[in-house]
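Exercise 7.
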Amino acid sequence: MLTSDIYYENLDKKFKNQLEKRVDKKLKILQKYLEKINKPLKITWKVNQFKHQLFSINVQLNLGHKEIIIEKKNNDLLKALEVVFNALKENLLIELKKIKEK
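Solution. The predicted structure, written as tokens, is:
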């Protein structure tokens, strides 16, 4: 089971809508990896918009025995999301490999 919460700070509405759509798509992709872990998981997304369109995305994935934290700052919100997503997916693949080795 996966729960996902998104928290925003100072994020323009147009960016909020873009982000929510993208995060939903990304979670569907991650779901196939997360199902194999077979534990209740929680992802927390914290998105902050600074002046001059600098964005910060902080993602925390709680695996129960371990917490993965990834943060990225970028002037392009969707690029920052892509970097965070790829790092999250890479970490999940590492965790799945460890589970298979046990």
